[in-house]
Amino acid sequence: MAGCVALIVAAGRGARLGAEGTEGAPSPKQYTLLCGRPMLSHAVAAFLDSDAVAAVRVVIHADDRARYDDAVGHLSLLEPVQGGASRQDSVRAGLESLAGEGFDSVLIHDAARPLVDAALIARTLEALAAHPGAVPALAVTDSLKRGAGGIILEAVERTELWRAQTPQGFSFTTILEAHRQAAALGTGGHTDDAAIAAAAGIEVALVPGAEDNFKITTREDLARAERLLAGAGETRTGQGFDVHAFGAEGSGPVRLCGVDVPHGRGLEGHSDADAGLHAATDAVLGALAEGDIGSHFPATDEAWKDADSATFLGHALGLLKARGGTLVHLDVTIICEHPKIAPHRAPMRAAMAAILGITIDRISVKATTTEGLGALGRGDGIAAQAVATICLPPIRPAPIRPEKPAP
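and the corresponding structure tokens:
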């Protein structure tokens, strides 16, 4: 397979970021949510969108396969490969996995740089056409000091100093041989592939880097990336509404927002009649201008009889991801006289966070009544309305529509 392959290095632990997963457990930073979407998915998307890149492979930690599948399993990537104890070992493992596939060149990129853009990829590949290696870099402009113990010892001349970035591009066979040579000599500790290339005597060209292509290391870096992405995309809102009547006495509990709420009468409907998830699904579909829940899962189709409504919301999320978008916030309001919603608000938020793969602070659940007015006021049923806020990339890639899930 001729052409260029992108190798995304995502096997590190990212301890300095102090990231947490959707349930509060420690999460490697490459899977930390950035504008509601895993950081890795941002990095991967830039290379998938490039016409000059024939294929993309990610190097992952042995413990992260489930996280990888959740983050980018829906994308057209080569099967991931397991990394090593160091970045150098991980890159070599990735290169070895691609040996013999016929790629002419490789772009090696850190997953912790999620804001890489098409222009930077193009500049690196353009330089690579004339050199065996090419690295984007920024000239050092600040005054440099060498210090110890909080005291300046001396000034350091900044002329000819550069801050190296990724993706770093190389002739595939050239950088693979350089990595093999370094491994054979036992020379570890190289912080990037340009250093390995230099040790092997490979000429590496400098190309203009990008200030926004910074490496996310701290929470402050993550906040900066959030601000940049929020300003670059297209923000949309969608609303959804659903209502279901109560069934016969003894048909409870009531299913709302993915949680079974104790009540003597359940809600009637073709699926599980979860008005909260139905409204949330329509809100996401509305923001995408993708019709309504009935057009995707018609009540006339027996395949969806008694179906878990989490399937519907998950499908709407899949359509959003296929467009390169992120769910920024979801606000659901339950309208009923009974049962009481407040005691179940926290589990409802947690259930929807799990379905959507976002943090609980991006989901709101509220409740109100109609003050005894109308059918809802008489206690005939429950209604729900939802508002979803999404962010789409400024230039939308051709969507890869997910298959409708099996019932």
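(Above: one complete record from the training split.) The two ends are 38 Å apart (CA to CA).
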